[in-house]
Design brief:
Helices cover 41% and strands 15% of the residues. It has 16 helices and 13 strands. The strands form 2 sheets. The chain has a 7-stranded parallel beta sheet with strand order 3-2-1-4-5-6-7, sandwiched between helices. Strands 10-9-8-11-12-13 form a 6-stranded parallel beta sheet, sandwiched between helices. The protein is globular, with a radius of gyration of 22 Å.
């Protein structure tokens, strides 16, 4: 079997980490398979994939293509530009897109894969345009489609060309069904986590030294938010919640993450967060690390892990990793993140966008070490039951096999109710 994976970026976000877990799981289960990855931008994903024995090729996105997205049309990032500006960008990018399609088509034909597995909205379409017509393509959906009017229409038009779509949660699957209709077979498969890496036991970090803060007094509760610098990840909300805490609760807050995508208007600025912390009078209690590759020691260094997305989260990779690490996790309860909260009683939730409610949850955990310990134990059990990445190989291999057999009946994939099946590849 030869499987080609397409991904828009080589930088490490939640989707890229989940892709690495898929590759690792399949490589372990089927070492004789030929796995290849094409990315549109250089980054740390590339050496990590190569370390797994995956062939990697970078075909760089032209800047005109990289910056196109619904965010530029008032989409999820809320970045408003004129209709004329959007039309001009699309027209300006058309020649660059055509040239990129030619390069990608040539690379795919040379590789001649049995299956194409595409990640990222742009690569879903590019994969459809460039693969051989007889080669099944599977879309992997890591985000909601309906808030993106332009992309929704494009995916609906191309759904009939797709062998099936893999959604990272039931919430994402329902949204995709609304966007693409009944022609597209959709299979929800939760992301996986390396339970050996993300675990309660292991090295921790001196977070204060990392962010150049003086050592915290004994008894200080460390609260962290790990996320890319996307505007909707709730960094500002997190800082406001910290500022609302009663002054007698000894808390330090840490923001960990960096910018990931190039789409216009999609990223926040760490300097703005520094300014907001100063305005709120908490600059001496807040540290911002920037991107950190190895997040497992950071999670073990925190007493409380916060997920603060202001919009529904399709899955919430950091939630699954935090649960696997045995962290006391607070979740913005909407979308796929609410699904993870409902899997057990190993986390606390709060209404998205409500800084006061988040602040109350932080205070509750900061004042109750026994509750933090209890949540951490239950969270680890939840992760072992639902997020073990070893199950991914069996589920994905069944999906690929069904695509090759051109089966017209729905693929029976229910990872939440059964153990992964192993079959001879």
């Amino acid at each position: 079997m030869k499987v080609l994976y397409l991904n828009p970026t080589g930088h490490l976000g939640g989707a890229e980490i989940s892709l690495l877990d898929m590759l690792a799981s399949i490589r372990s289960a089927a070492p004789h398979w030929h796995l290849h990855l094409i990315v549109g931008q250089d980054g740390m994903l590339i050496p990590l994939a190569r370390d797994l024995g995956v062939g990697v090729e970078v075909i760089p996105y032209p800047i005109e293509l990289a910056q196109l997205g619904d965010a530029a049309a008032g989409g999820p990032a809320g970045f408003q530009v004129s209709r004329w500006s959007v039309a001009r960008k699309i027209a300006y990018a058309s020649l660059a897109i055509a040239k990129y399609v030619q390069r990608l088509r040539s690379a795919i034909r040379e590789l001649n894969p049995d299956v194409v597995h595409a990640h990222g909205f742009k690569m879903l379409l590019l994969g459809n345009w460039t693969r051989r017509s007889a080669t099944p393509i599977f879309w992997h959906i890591h985000d909601y489609v309906t808030p993106r009017p332009f992309m929704s229409r494009l995916l609906r038009c191309h759904a009939g060309m797709c062998a099936g779509a893999i959604a990272n949660s039931s919430s994402t699957a329902r949204d995709l069904r609304i966007a693409c209709g009944s022609r597209l077979r959709i299979m929800p498969v939760y992301n996986g986590v390396d339970l050996n890496r993300f675990c309660p036991a292991g090295d921790a970090l001196d977070l204060d030294r990392l962010v150049n803060l003086p050592p915290a007094p004994p008894g200080t509760i460390r609260v962290g938010l790990l996320a890319t610098m996307a505007r909707w990840k709730g960094h500002a909300l997190f800082l406001r919640a910290i500022a609302m805490l009663p002054p007698e609760i000894p808390v330090r807050a840490y923001i960990i993450g960096g910018a990931l995508y190039q789409t216009d208007g999609s990223q926040g600025d760490p300097n703005d967060l520094h300014s907001l912390a100063a305005q709120l009078g908490i600059a001496d209690r807040v540290g911002i690390t920037g991107f950190r590759f190895n997040s497992a020691p950071i999670m073990r260094s925190l007493h409380i892990l916060v997920h603060a997305s202001t919009k529904p989260e399709p899955f919430g990779m950091v939630i699954a990793e935090g649960m696997a690490s045995g962290s006391a996790v607070i979740i913005s309860a909407a979308g796929g993140a609410a699904e993870l909260l409902a899997l057990g009683d190993g986390a606390l939730g709060f209404p998205p966008g409500h800084a006061a409610a988040l602040s109350d949850r932080i205070a509750q955990l900061a004042l109750d070490p026994e509750l933090r310990r209890e949540l951490g134990l239950k969270a680890r059990r939840t992760a072992e039951a639902y997020f073990d990445r070893d199950r991914l190989a069996g589920e994905l291999m069944r999906i690929y096999k069904a695509g090759l057999q051109r089966r017209s009946d729905p693929v029976d994939v229910d990872p939440y109710l059964r153990e992964p099946e192993a079959w001879d590849a």
